[in-house]
Design goal:
With 467 residues, this protein is α/β, with parallel strands linked by helices. The chain has 18 helices and 24 strands. Strands 1-2-3-4-5-6 form a six-stranded mixed sheet, covered by helices on one side. The protein has a six-stranded mixed sheet with strand order 7-8-9-10-11-12. Strand 1 and strand 2 form a beta hairpin. The termini are far apart.
């Protein structure tokens, strides 16, 4: 028996490859599935099952393409109702995989169809559980992501309490917990950076598995402090339920090389956006006017899903040479399938053609620190609310990038703003969005809060200011 966790850092997502005696099961595959096929081919194994723990909201799964390519059976929990062929696993149903067995445990709560898969080894011993978003390391799944459910998040939280107590916590302590996500995912509130653990350890350290925790206490703790999920989440659920274009088709239309003239022409078409995926400093120095910055080397896919409101936007790509397919693939992982080409020759070709450019001014943290009184009322912290609450510069307001479309009306077109995040990546995204909306005088703070906090500026840590 072989178990491999395949972790995609940008999505904080874990898929699983399980092989026994020439047969393979894939659990929660991401959209680009070639790696799973290659792994099976290396040992001459056959992919027999594709187990889905639920309809994912934060990424588009690779189940449809993988099933078409391999002939494997897609398995969901019995409450699932997708638009393609699948097997609805009944609670307690057992699937044979080589010399091992995989048992479906219906664990509703995160969503109604949520299912945990229990792996029984060659001796029939309970070895591991693949919990999807039901149980994370240090956390549990949020109960407010179900699409078109008649149940409230309070109802779902109650179901999750029952699932954890009656289906998961009754298993032996030595069972290994393999979740679908780690720290950084928006599918939970407080996930650990660890990517797997024993159930026994989780019973000791996971707040949601406290031995004497009542159902009412669980519901209150789970539903308190939930921020609104990113706007693309329900759209990804729909794609996972209904199916999607093959990734090969998406890549083919997204990786068309466009001359400067063709690129300019396509920019005039309705519902079209220029997406610049280069480094923040390169974007700051020169970019196509009106372009949105989301760097490929940061938290690319989740920020695409957060900032680009229309999932069917026609996206024109500006990127570093050789990264075109990577950009299109990572867009597709969160359902943005309508990339329609990239600028051949990149910004160098644009500049050579003497087309107009725009820029974002940048400033060193020490320069701001020496003029604190002059700029503090013009500065905005775009980090997440939790980061801001932990520590921020005195008198600097919080306007998280996560809610830029909701709060962009709070910016004035005739005012100058200094933007900072933790390191400079998110603030550059915010700067590009504001420039798209007529707020042109924006300055990005190099190094962000990580650098600002070391300049001697007064900080607020919790309720106390350090001066």
């Amino acid at each position: 028996m072989q178990i491999k966790q395949l972790y995609t850092g940008c999505l904080a997502e874990a898929a699983y490859y399980i092989e026994s005696n020439g047969e393979v099961a894939i659990i929660d595959p991401i959209r680009d599935t070639e790696a799973y096929i290659q792994m099976a081919n290396e040992t001459g194994a056959t992919i027999k099952y594709i187990f889905e723990t639920h309809f994912h909201a934060d990424f588009v799964s690779g189940h449809v393409d993988l099933a078409k390519t391999t002939g494997a059976t897609i398995v969901y929990g019995s409450e699932a109702k997708p638009s393609f062929d699948f097997h609805g696993a009944q609670d307690g149903e057992v699937f044979i995989l080589g010399n091992i067995k995989i048992k479906a445990l219906h664990t509703p709560g995160h969503t109604l169809e949520s299912t945990t898969y229990l792996l029984l080894d060659e001796e029939g011993k309970e070895h591991a559980i693949f919990t999807g978003d039901t149980l994370f390391i240090g956390d549990v799944g949020r109960p407010d992501l179900a699409v078109k459910s008649d149940l409230s998040q309070t109802d779902l939280a109650g179901l999750l309490y029952d699932s954890l107590r009656n289906k998961i916590m009754t298993l032996p302590d030595e069972v290994i917990v393999y979740p679908a996500h780690g720290a950084g995912s928006a599918c939970g509130k407080n996930m650990s950076k660890e990517r797997f653990d024993t159930l026994g350890n989780q019973k000791k350290f996971n707040y949601a598995l406290r031995e004497n925790m009542s159902r009412e206490e669980f519901i209150v703790e789970l539903t308190t402090g939930l921020s609104a999920p990113p706007q693309y989440f329900p759209k990804n659920v729909t794609l996972n339920q209904r199916g999607y274009d093959s990734l090969a088709e998406v890549i083919a239309r997204g990786t068309k090389a466009l001359s400067v003239e063709d690129f300019l022409s396509k920019m005039q078409e309705p519902n079209t956006l220029v997406l610049d995926t280069r480094k923040p400093g390169d974007f700051a120095e020169a970019h196509i006017p009106g372009a949105l910055f989301i760097g490929i080397d940061g938290g690319f896919a989740p920020w695409v899903g957060t900032v680009i409101e229309d999932i069917k936007t026609n996206i024109l790509i500006v990127c570093d040479e050789g990264r075109e397919e990577e950009v299109v693939t990572r867009l597709a992982r969160v359902g943005y399938d309508y990339a329609c080409g990239y600028l051949d020759g990149g910004m160098e070709a644009w500049l050579k053609a003497k087309n107009q450019t725009s820029r974002v001014s940048e400033v060193e943290p020490d320069d701001l620190a020496t003029n604190y009184a002059h700029w503090v009322d013009k500065t905005v912290d775009v980090r997440k609310p939790g980061e801001y609450a932990d520590s921020h510069i005195l008198d600097v307001p919080s306007k998280p990038l996560d809610f830029i479309h909701e709060n962009k009306s709070e910016y004035s077109a005739d005012k100058k703003y200094y933007l900072h995040c933790a390191g400079g990546y998110r603030s550059m995204i915010a700067a590009s969005v504001l420039k798209q909306n007529g707020v042109d005088d924006v300055v990005n703070v190099k190094g962000g809060f990580s650098a600002l906090k070391n300049t001697g500026l007064p900080l607020v840590n919790g309720e106390m200011a350090e001066v």
